[in-house]
Every structure is written in C-alpha cells, then in structure tokens.
Amino acid sequence: MIFKLRRPDADIAWKNPEILKRFSRYRGIIDNTQISRYLIAKTIKCDYNSNDSLEHLEKLLKQKSKEFNEVLNEDINSQKNRKFEEKSYIHLSKAIAYKYLENCKFCERRCGVNRIQGEKGFCHLDKDIYVSSAFLHWGEESVLVPSGTIFFAGCNFGCVFCQNYDISNAWKGRRKIEDIAQKVDAKSLATIAQKLVKNGGINLNWVGSDPIPCLHLILESMQYQTMNITQLWNSNFYLTEESLSLIIDFIDFWLPDLKYGNNKCAEKYSGIKHYWE
Prior knowledge:
Helices cover 36% and strands 12% of the residues. The chain has 277 residues and is an alpha/beta fold.
C-alpha cells in the first residue's frame, strides 16, 4: 500500500524507530499487513438468546474475550482465512450495551436512568444518538492524520473550558438537539465511517463531546462496517469497567484525555466526583 501524508511532522514521525516499534500493529493496519481487532471479533461465533439474563451474557462475554485474544495471537494468514459469523462477539457486546442502557452505567456518573424508555441523565441523551460533524481531521497527533473523525453531541462532563461546548453542553435545556446535530442509526453511522475511510482517513476517530454515551450505537455500527481500519477511542475515559469490557477488545488505538491530577479541580471545573480514582 502506498501511504501518503500531507503533514511534514507526520512523515517525520513515521521515520522514528521508537514510534514504529510502539505503533507497529497500528501501522500494520494502515499498510494492510495486520487486521483490525473489530474484524477479528466479527469472526468469533456467539450463541446466545436476547432473553438470556444479563449475568449469563456477561459470563459469555468473558469467555469470548479469551477466545478472541487467542485468535488475535494467530498469524495473519490464519486470521484472513476466518469468516464473519452471523452472530458474533460484536453482536454480543452490543446486546449487553443495550441492556446497560436500561439502567445506564456507561460512565462513572452511573445515572441509572432508563435510556431505552426515553429517560435522560447528565449527558441529556436517551437511546438516540446524534452526529454533529464528520470530517478528515488534520489537527490530531502526527501519526493519526488524516483522521476520520466523528463528533457526537452530548457529553458526560461539564468542563468550563470545553472547546466543543456548543455540541457538548450549551444546548442542554435551551435548544433541541436536532438543531445542532443529525440523528443517526447504526447503518447510517457505518456509512459515515466508511465514507471517511474511502476519502483517505487512516483511522476512525470516535470522539465528541465524548463517545462514552454513544457506546451502544458505535458497537452496533461495527456490525455493518467491513473495512480494515483502526478503531480509535478518543475520550475523557470516565467510563465504567462494565462499559470498558464491551469495547476493550475492539479498539486498536486508545487516546485518553487526562485532565486532572486531583479530585478538587475535577469537581470544580468539570463537575465530576472521584475523577482520580
């Protein structure tokens, strides 16, 4: 694959042996010599029923995570010969995510609202998700550009310094979310993602506001995505262990935004408790 970059610092970064070492798998996906994790997950067969208890599904999730990591360590030719399953590890994670929405525990606010029934917590989102913009981002870290960036409306933080305040918090209780963003379903979100890749994005950058409240639809969109592309989680990382378990095997590149080194500042400037823990 011919890999063209238009930002000089990005070109220079990829000539750095340490960067190539640290991001070898990511670079391999760019060069199509490695397979993105979510595609491998789509080859892991999962037999479950939508009426199964949450406890049973969570137990099955742990089993499939172990199976996934065994396949992840296989050679590239073995991985390429695997076929997508009609009901896969991705489907299982999505199913659990929707159950979590009934008593929302996606982030550490643990609002506990039933978003399936239209209730809304701090993020002001029910089960419906809205995209405010999607474009090739040239302002990310050097090795990430051009980044296929998808910005969602709504956030679980209330930062006074937010650079995306218009889509994260400004509309809450003042305007309809439809005035600032477009409602998407899983298929349309996958279409947006694939268009970004087709236009030159070397990763899919799930960002925001923050992707945490949108986790269920991001997972569901992966059912419809087919391209070998890095899935990048660009987040404040105030997500619970439960929600992290749903995506940890599918994300190729993590971009956590460490904002504070103490809880006092976190509560004062972002309105969140127990941030450091």
